[in-house]
Design goal:
Layout (H helix, E strand, L loop, with lengths): L1 E6 L4 E8 L2 E9 L11 H22 L9 E7 L3 H18 L2 E6 H6 L13 E6 L4 E8 L2 E7 L5 H11 L6 H9 L23 H15 L6 H29 L4 E5 L6 H14 L2 E3 L11 H12 L21
Parallel strand pairs: 1-4, 4-5, 6-9, 9-10
Antiparallel strand pairs: 1-2, 2-3, 6-7, 7-8
This protein binds adenosine-5'-triphosphate and magnesium ion.
The site of magnesium ion has 5 residues, from helix 3.
Length: about 325
């Protein structure tokens, strides 16, 4: 069985092929030009997806040594994401499926992230605790099997990745913020500033907007519009990063005390963060659980996770019609 996956929810166009359960290509074209605008410009994103999607599909087929006619199942991200960007990949996939008379499946991008650990050699074992930390979402989930996902908690305001991006902007480090904060944090003292961590009692929910505001207040109070010395930028980045990691780990730890799981899976763009990866490994050791963290190419947006999720939906008799519309919000019926 040959599965073609297409991802275009934000600023990465990606095409992947899974051939007889083996990933044979996962091409990712990142729209780096957004950095000069300080964030993703939706219209420019849609246009860039349009320009690259056909060559990317051709390259993926060549890399996998396949013809278009060899593809059995075509999967594309339907949401959440930027509506114009989603429309490009989704409409292209539907058109391709219609013209080739192949099965089409719409995939939820966040479900793609949740199961991205299965792209690794060592697979998660059900039930597992999933911590999905991305640019638009922060979710703690109990995943009982491919079709049974329970949401334990989510952010009540900003997503963790969004907080990284906003704090990076405050420090003048640019977009995307996560990698920049991480590299400055490496040279900083994480104990220097005691940023607050929200504790939403009796829930597994997260909040990052108070933390973000407290970084802003710290900068306003101490530097009053003047340049922040590099060593202070490093200390702020390190202290902020530690606060985010502590907030994420605290809720994951609470969930592990309440739910008996076999594995812990970290996923989403922020899963690329070294401090977070190390903290999740330590958490796994503490609770004696198997920890699965995707390789870097499966943390950020990628079509491998979309093809994988699409194939699992297909195997579980889920069908999509060509009438399916893109959805910008989470809108995940499957999360009970
Ligand atoms: N090393 C890192 N440390 C922290 N954050 C990071 C790192 N690398 C990337 N990020 C963050 O990951 C986010 C992007 O992740 P991803 O591409 O999964 O998000 P998205 O697709 O925009 O959102 P969603 O998946 O919720 O729709 C950005 O906010 C970026 O700053
Ligand atoms: Mg994503």
């Amino acid at each position: 069985m040959n599965v073609l996956g297409i991802e275009s929810s934000c600023d990465e166009t990606s095409v992947a092929i899974i051939s007889d359960d083996k990933l044979t290509s996962n091409l990712i074209s990142s729209q780096d030009f957004h950095s000069k605008y300080g964030g993703v410009v939706p219209e420019l994103s849609s246009r860039a997806h349009l320009q690259i999607i056909i060559p990317l599909v051709k390259d993926a087929l060549t890399k996998s040594n396949l013809e278009l006619s060899d593809i059995d199942l075509i999967c594309a991200t339907a949401g959440p994401g930027l509506i114009g960007a989603l429309l490009v990949g989704l409409t292209f996939a539907k058109g391709l499926a219609f013209s080739l008379n192949k099965t089409f499946l719409a995939v939820n991008h966040i479900e793609g992230h949740i199961f991205s650990g299965f792209l690794m050699e060592e697979k998660p074992e059900f039930p597992f605790l999933a911590l999905v930390v991305s640019g638009g979402h922060t979710l703690l989930l109990l995943v009982n099997d491919f079709m049974d996902i329970k949401k334990l908690g989510s952010t009540v305001d900003d997503a963790a990745g969004e907080a990284f991006d906003k704090v990076s902007k405050m420090l003048g480090l640019g977009y995307p913020g996560g990698p920049k904060i991480q590299s400055h944090a490496q040279n900083g003292n994480a104990d220097k500033i005691n940023f607050p961590i929200a504790d939403l009692k009796n829930s597994f929910n997260f909040s990052f907007s108070g933390l973000k505001t407290s970084v802003l207040r710290h900068i306003q109070k101490n530097y009053q519009g003047t340049n922040i010395p590099l060593s202070d930028v490093n200390d702020i980045a390190a202290s902020f990063q530690m606060a985010v990691v502590k907030a994420l780990i605290r809720n994951a730890e609470k969930a592990l005390s309440e739910y008996d799981v076999n594995s812990i899976c970290l996923a989403g763009g922020v899963a690329a963060n070294k401090a977070l990866r190390n903290a999740v490994i330590t958490l796994g050791e503490k609770f004696n659980k198997k920890v699965i963290i995707p390789a870097m190419e499966y943390c950020g947006d990628n079509a491998a996770m979309i093809a994988y999720r699409g194939q699992k939906l297909f195997e579980n008799d889920v069908t999509s019609t060509l009438n399916v519309s893109p959805f910008p919000g989470l809108s995940a019926d499957i999360f009970s």
